[in-house]
Design goal:
globular, two-stranded parallel sheet, binds zinc ion
Length: 304
């Protein structure tokens, strides 16, 4: 048995060190390639754990990587070659700081819907109901009309990624090109987003990429059997979701569960997640205004 953690941005190395010390005490941190063999053996003294970090934010290089090296804890990062090469942001990073009403007005023009019907929902949840081309059409129109101030890029650059890859401590995995909600896309777009992220990273790093994390990562809502088949046909060894739960020898290697962990969360809150295991996501879905409920309601409005 084991657990796999999923982090994004971390700007507080002391918080991370505290969490890693808890992990080292209670779990056996392993490399990604050891996940299945150690799980099958089952004779380890402690359950295994593996750290994953999505999106390739610069804070991985600046804050997370030094702590991992200090404690010799292996990890996997999931990045987009498009962002690394072109030093661009994902759409949800780009709209951060944009004015909601102005963006909604453009969106309502593009998809021909009354903006008042969508006003009560968080902008990010609305965008997660669109295709990636529509998302960027709305963003490009906003940029043209309002000329927002250029922000520093979130993504690590090629040299940083190569240094991390060469460390031998961190595995680099694919995470699509533009972070679409794959379930919203036509088959050709979904396939291209997935395969091109593998080949693009292989071109940068000079070796094959073996693993993948689904953008946003909730089974059914964000990806389905179609995406798992694309990955299986490509020869991907491990694909990770964001569904909570433990990893064991019976886990589906094309939809491996992970426990999300946000910078600043207390150990107690983290332990609660581990205690509830696969039930944690279900409990979170009961909360009013959660993303899953919002997106279902938004889709009903859009499809009317
Ligand atoms: Zn992501």
């Amino acid at each position: 048995m084991g657990i796999i953690l999923n982090l994004h941005e971390v700007h507080d190395p002391f918080w991370l060190e505290n969490i890693l010390c808890f992990l080292k005490k209670n779990y056996n941190p392993v490399r990604q390639t050891e996940l299945t063999s150690l799980c099958k053996n089952g004779n380890e003294k402690k359950p295994i754990c593996h750290i994953t970090v999505d999106d390739g934010d610069k804070s991985f290089y600046k804050a997370i990587f030094p702590v991992l090296k200090k404690h010799m804890i292996p990890a996997t990062i999931f990045v987009s070659p498009d962002l690394v090469i072109n030093q661009r942001d994902f759409w949800f990073q780009e709209i951060n700081g944009y004015e909601k009403q102005k963006l909604l007005r453009i969106l309502s023009d593009v998809i021909d819907i009354d903006e008042n019907n969508l006003n009560k929902f968080p902008l990010v949840d609305i965008f997660k109901c669109l295709t990636i081309n529509l998302i960027w059409e709305v963003i490009d129109r906003y940029k043209m009309k309002y000329q927002p101030r250029k922000k520093p890029c979130h993504s690590m650059d090629v040299n940083e990624l190569k240094e991390i890859d060469n460390s031998g401590l961190v595995t680099v995995g694919a995470h699509t090109l533009r972070h679409p909600i794959l379930a919203n896309e036509e088959l050709t777009v979904s396939k291209n987003e997935i395969i091109s992220s593998f080949t693009g990273l292989a071109d940068i790093l000079g070796h094959k990429i073996e693993c993948f994390a689904y953008p946003n990562g909730m089974p059914v809502l964000d990806f389905g059997q179609r995406e798992m088949d694309i990955l299986k046909d490509y020869g991907c060894s491990y694909s990770f979701s964001t569904e909570s739960g433990n990893f064991n020898s019976r886990s589906n290697l094309l939809s491996i569960p992970r426990y999300g962990l946000n910078c600043g969360e207390s150990r107690l809150y983290f332990k609660n997640k581990l205690f509830f295991g696969a039930q944690w996501n279900k409990i979170m879905k009961l909360k009013p205004g959660n993303e899953s409920r919002n997106r279902k309601a938004i889709l009903r409005i859009i499809k009317k």
